[in-house]
Write a structure and sequence with these properties.
Blueprint lengths: L9 H17 L24 H6 L4 H11 L5 E5 L3 E5 L3 H10 L4 E2 L1 H12 L8 H15 L2 H27 L4 E2 H18 L13 H15 L5 H10 L2 H33 L12 H7 L10 H32 L1 H14 L11 H4 L3 H13 L6 E5 L3 E3 L3 E3 L4 E4 L1 H5 L2 H4 L40 H18 E5 L7 E2 L5 E2 L4 E6 L3
Parallel strand pairs: 2-8
Antiparallel strand pairs: 1-2, 3-5, 4-12, 5-8, 6-7, 9-12, 10-11
Length: about 525
Amino acid sequence: MDLLSETPQLPLLAGTAIAAFAIHALRPMKDTSGFRELEKPDSTLPVIGNLLDAATRVDDLHDWFLEQSLCFEGRPWKFTVPGQGEKIVVTSPDAIEEVMSTQFENFGKGQFQTDLLSGLFGVAFGTTDGELWYHQRKAAVKFFSAKILDMFMCESIHKGMLRVHSEIESAISKNEEVNLKMLFQDFTLDTFVEMGLGVDLQSVGAKTRHPLHEAIEATSKIVFERFRRPVWLWKLENWMSVGKEGELRRHMSSVYSWMHDVIQQGVEQSIMKKQGGEGPTKQSYKSILELFLDSPEGEAEGFTKDHLVDFILNVVVAATDSTVDTLTWIFYAIHKHPGVEEKLREEMNKAFTGLSAGTYLTMEHLKPLAYLEAVIKETLRLYPTGPLTFREALADTVICGDILVRKGQQVMTPQYAMGRNPAVWGPDAAEFRPERWIDSETGKVKPVSPFKFFSYSAGPRICPGMSLAMMELRIMVANLMHRYRFEMDPSNDGSYMMGVTLLMKQPLRVKAVPISR
């Protein structure tokens, strides 16, 4: 289902326009003398602003942001949607650094975004501000930096890869296609649920999908619909538990019920061990839940069971969606650029001389593969998992020296547009060219400012699981390419579907061809 395929009904548009006119006419004038007046799209209309743009470009809104950003040549600009206020759009690394880092205390997620995303991510460090964000962020950094969690992920990924290979081999034996996107969904959900809760869903190869998978997938779509609906309407439906919001509440109720049961079992087991005089478990790898339960009491201060559920749900959903999307776009991009594929295979063949096609490649094997990392980063540049980022001003402030941002006003960064903008990445910004990441003298990957390469956010809110995510991407891509070549369905045009992340609209159907060594 395409989330934005339905054009808003005429009565709703008319009502919104009337309300916007009333607000516009009654609001007090604010003194903005001395500040820059930002440019706005030529399509902006009186009173309703860019409402028609939002309605007519619902299927390719990211490309609308790209078109406008190109028109303004990297300069900040603004647009308006009635009921959501005037938004400022920035695409320059300097402006992003100011919002995300230099003035971090002046910008947060804000209540608008917290309300929108809480239906999917819960109330956790990815959707909140203030003390709750600080405590959960601190816990996230601690857990994700634990070597014992790295070991857990390595074990889980290896187990999942064996299942993925089994599914592909089965399809080869039957001369059938494989939907890589669905395979990636099952693989990543298994991996990150096991990382978070220590539970193996065994989704890969299962005849029926786990209810958790279906609930998260359906909820993600419903949550994104909130972005194009009046806040009062979806909040009313949520309160009444009707329509799509009623469906969302039912899905999340089942997710929370399942997660509470799993966590309760973990808590009871931990209590029994402590009562029996046992200390923290000494196994070689642990899930986030186990790390939390084994941590000193002071470190868990302020964490309720609900907070823990939201924390782990945030990690699972965010990590699963972003990894699935990136893997899907990587294999699409490699197929569309045969020269890139051959160069990547040359690098792998040189590094893996003497290894059979059946050898499982670990991070130790992949350390010398600079071009592989460049391919992944180039994919993230052009196909960012979070194509739009919002920050809300927590107080009146000034950015870029002369742009006034009022308290409650949103500043947006369209990463999809930014990655394709020549003002940021040069005249070949629209080209898929991994070589841009390689230092010509050292042959290694060049460091790039996180405020320019913004796929994992930047500043104090930079993704704490970035290293684990990159590890999974490297291992998955390398192991699949080491064993197979993929012939892609030519009907796949690479179009995206609007969502919280950058989803490929079509299945990624391929025929796998084994590589003999």
